[in-house]
Amino acid sequence: MLRCKELGLTLDELEQMEYGLVLDMMIEKSNDEYKYPYKATQKDFNKF
């Protein structure tokens, strides 16, 4: 519930959401603060 409050979700909103969606939102919030060491370039995509 604390994580949902941090996301700004109300109880009414939670009742309308599926459990998986709430988990995805919490995971995405934690990923927002992660500093990725490398950003792919067009050259990387072409190699792929």
Give the tags.
single chain, 48 residues, mainly alpha, 4 helices
The geometry reads as: elongated
- Give the number of DSSP strands: 0
Low-confidence stretches: none
Oligomer: single chain
Structural overview:
This protein has 48 residues and is an all-alpha fold. The protein has a domain at 2-34. The chain is built from 4 helices and no strands. The chain has helices at residues 2-7, 11-16, 19-32, 42-47. The longest helix is centred in the middle third of the chain and has 14 residues, at 19-32. The chain is elongated and about 45 Å long. The model has no long low-confidence stretch (mean pLDDT 88).
Strand and helix map with partners:
Blueprint: H1 2-7, H2 11-16, H3 19-32, H4 42-47
